[in-house]
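Long-time lurker. I teach an intro course on protein structure, and each term I like to show students one example going from raw sequence to a predicted 3D structure in token notation. This year I'd like something fresh instead of my usual example. Would anyone be willing to generate the tokens for the chain below so I can use it in lecture? Attribution to the forum is fine with me.
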Amino acid sequence: MTKTLGLIGSGMIGGTLARLAITAGLEVVLSNSRGPESLADLVAELGDRARAASPAEAAETGDLVVATIPLHAYDKLPASALTGKTVIDTMNYRSSRDGHIAELDSNELTASELVQRHLAGSQVVKACNNIVFHHLLALAQPSGAADRSALPIAGDDAAAKAEVARLLDTLGYDTVDMGTLAASWRSAPTTPVYCAPYMPTPPEGLEQAEIGRWIFQSAAIPAPAGRIRELVDSAVRGQVSVNWLA
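-- Reply from a regular --
Happy to contribute to a lecture. Here you go:
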């Protein structure tokens, strides 16, 4: 059972998962590349069950660890400290930010398979990569709630996926199993299940910069497991299904 959640990266998704974990009664250990002192305000906001540490310490302390950093920095994840751990990978590949990564451009690997290759001693599970941070916070609901949303997950180890599903249940979400890490492209940017199910369609005529602002102000719409399963199954690799999220 997860009692302490370690976070490597404490930005929008990491900070939101930390808030949900604290609300659920878990301990959290936060870290980032800038050092524990840079997290003082967030730790103060979260309260006594939160503390800041180095990435290696967050990895070692967490019963389950979230890796939520820009994908281009995946090889900075502390592989030794994460040995034997289940690692939630929230990272998405964007060549405009991450630079071109040949194995990903050619579809030889998915982003999560690349992370798993680096974290050879860990069990990587893709999750929480397909939802905007404020929707992730707003849509959390108790188990059994009629308006509960679901998040897709993928992984090569059944026990690790079950561990992540239990955590997400505790945090307020059902899960939909996409399969192995090789299938994790099904929740990548511009696929049908990426962000759009949890928000309304933007008004017509917005410029790209305006769409970005609109997204971060948009209302949260529940997306149940049946809808998420339908969207995951409808994905076609390489096909852009949600142009306004490109």
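Some talking points for your students: The chain has a mean pLDDT of 96. The chain is about 35% helix and 15% strand.
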